[in-house]
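Quick one: Aa3-type cytochrome c oxidase subunit IV from Aurantimonas marianensis, structure tokens please.
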Amino acid sequence: MAELPNYDTTNPADMDYPEHERTYALFLAMFKWGTIGTVAILVGMTVGLMMGGGFLGGILSFVVLLAIAYFIAR
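--- reply ---
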């Protein structure tokens, strides 16, 4: 059977809300830039491997997409 908790259930713990908000903002930024980076890699691979752009064409399209995303996402 379940035992009674050995901690105080009437007084909840103090929360550090500014730290929660900073952590959530960091999570959102990492998610946004991770998604942008993944899409840029996939487009670069498509240009380089499937569309005949070669290695330099893939790298160039990757860098251009990251630059465009940087100015849009600011």
